[in-house]
Amino acid sequence: MGGMDNLFIKYFENQEFCLALAERTTSFIKMVIKKAIESGEDAILLKGDLASQLTSLMFPSHYRKFIKPFQEEIVFFAHKKSIPVIKHSDGNLWNLLDDLIEVGFDGLHPI
User: Fold this and answer.
1) Is the backbone peptide bond immediately before 110 cis, with ω within 30 degrees of 0?
2) Would you list the DSSP string of 45-105?
């Protein structure tokens, strides 16, 4: 995509593409988690900043449409295998915090 800014533009220009990309990425992440668990890992750290120092990097509505459902799927997948998932994100997450709790993350790094 050439950076997050290009992806955020696609949220407006081509929502179907963004949802398809999120589905493929989610399938890949679940495969990686499965392999990590088979290798003996006992927790997952899901990377990817969602915020800057001032606020979230995207509109909360875009997080809820393009990211949250897929993070919920990833967390559910790991939890079925009794593996906790910690979300990493720097920045001011206040306007997404309730959503992150709803996703079911077991922790938030670097808090």
Assistant:
1) yes
2) EE----B-SSSBSS-HHHIIIIIHHHHHHHHHHHHHTT--EEEE--S--GGGHHHHHHHT-
What's the pTM?
Answer: 0.91
Element (H, E) at 107: strand 107-109
How far apart CA 102 and CA 63 sit, in angstroms, is 13
Q: Residue 84 carries which side chain, given as an amino acid letter?
A: P
Instruction: Read off the pLDDT of residues 26-35 as tens digits, 9 standing for 90 and up.
Output: 999 999 999 9
Q: How far is CA 103 from the centre of its chain?
A: 9
Question: What is the gyration radius of the CA atoms in the chain, in angstroms?
Answer: 14
**Cα gap 35→54, rounded to integer Å:** 36
